[in-house]
Amino acid sequence: MRDFAAVAIIIAVIIVAFAAALTDGYYMDIFILTCFYGTLAVAWNLMAGLTGLMSLGHALFVGIGAYSVAWGYTAHQWSPLVTWPIGIGLSIAVAIVIGLLCFRYGLKGYFFAIATLACGEIAFFAVSATTALGRSDGIILPLAKNPELHLQFIAKWPYGLMIGSFLTLTLLAGQFLMRSRIGYYWRSLRDNEDAAEALGVNAMAMKVLSFAISAGVASVCGAFYAHYVAFVDPRSVLGVDISVQLLVYAIVGGMGLLWGPLVGAAVLVPFGMFLRNFSFLQGSEVIFYAVLLIGLALVLPQGVSGWVVGRIGKAKAAAELPS
Question: What's the pLDDT tens digit per position in 18-59?
């Protein structure tokens, strides 16, 4: 119940933040990008934090979702009702294939991370050389005759409502999975895979399932990004930067909790945008960003969420002591 209460509080904060940013385009942009990266980070944490599968290739699935929308719309004028399922289905299929190959040969830890990174880089260079996908120049999504049917809005608040809803659903689904039998299987594999298999857990099936679910959510985020920005190119949706950012958000926010990476995104995304817009010296935002990351890693090695939960636990323990 405590975990569900924490998720409920976070959902309430999302609603309040959306309402606060409703009348200002700049703050709505911050809200949208924070929810976008927060959703990606929570989905990534379902795999890395709960199952112990450290992926550095999640940009691949973001790119599949984004390019499914961009190519389907520009080449065939397909609606989101067609392009989104295509992107999600392709991402899940690719994740299953990669997972089966990696787990069949026992790749785990750093070796699995390198394998996923390699898959992402292969996709990056393949798309950069494919004329139908715009090569390295990318694809611009033109304005449709019926823009609302293609999720093209002049105002930003509909995008904020969409990505806020996606984040809320991801948190609720993730919390449900954590408390289900599947979630206990995932954590047992993370803690001791050999012992879990000895007790009858199908390690390969559970790891592939975790990978596929995480990839599907990442594809949804990629499809949303294509509509929001109306432009995709290999660097923006397939670059290794996205995968590294998810790792950073998880480390800063804390990987021990489902919502920990969301806290990391909520801290770092607005801070990074503020520095890019208001830094007094070109490139100074990178320096400040690096200093913040180093400071948080040294002061809060368990992550922001881990520190908060620890403080709450100590306060409750102190309150229960007899006076």
Answer: 998 888 888 999 999 999 999 999 999 988 888 888 899 999
Instruction: Indicate the pLDDT class of residue 133, thresholds 50, 70 and 90.
Output: very high
**pTM given for the model:** 0.91
Q: Residue 185 contacts by C-beta under 8 Å, 6 or more apart in sequence?
A: 196, 201, 206
**SS3 track for the chain:** CHHHHHHHHHHHHHHHHHHHCCCCHHHHHHHHHHHHHHHHHHHHHHHHHHHCCCCCCCHHHHHHHHHHHHHHHHHHCCCHHHHHHHHHHHHHHHHHHHHHHHHHCCCCCHHHHHHHHHHHHHHHHHHHCCHHHCHHHCEECCCCCCHHHHCCCCCCHHHHHHHHHHHHHHHHHHHHHHCCHHHHHHHHHHHCHHHHHHCCCCHHHHHHHHHHHHHHHHHHHHHHHHHHHCEECHHHHHCHHHHHHHHHHHHHHCCCCCCHHHHHHHHHHHHHHHHHHHCCCCCHHHHHHHHHHHHHHHHCCCHHHHHHHHHHHHHHHHHHCCC
Enter the tokens of residue 261: 């990476």
Q: Say if residues 93 and 68 touch (Cβ distance below 8 Å).
A: no
CA distance 306 to 44: 18
Whole-angstrom Cα distance, residue 230 to residue 119?
25
C-alpha 89/C-alpha 215 separation (Å) is 10
Q: What is the pLDDT of residues 50-105, one digit of tens each?
A: 888 889 999 999 999 999 999 999 998 999 999 999 999 999 999 999 999 999 88
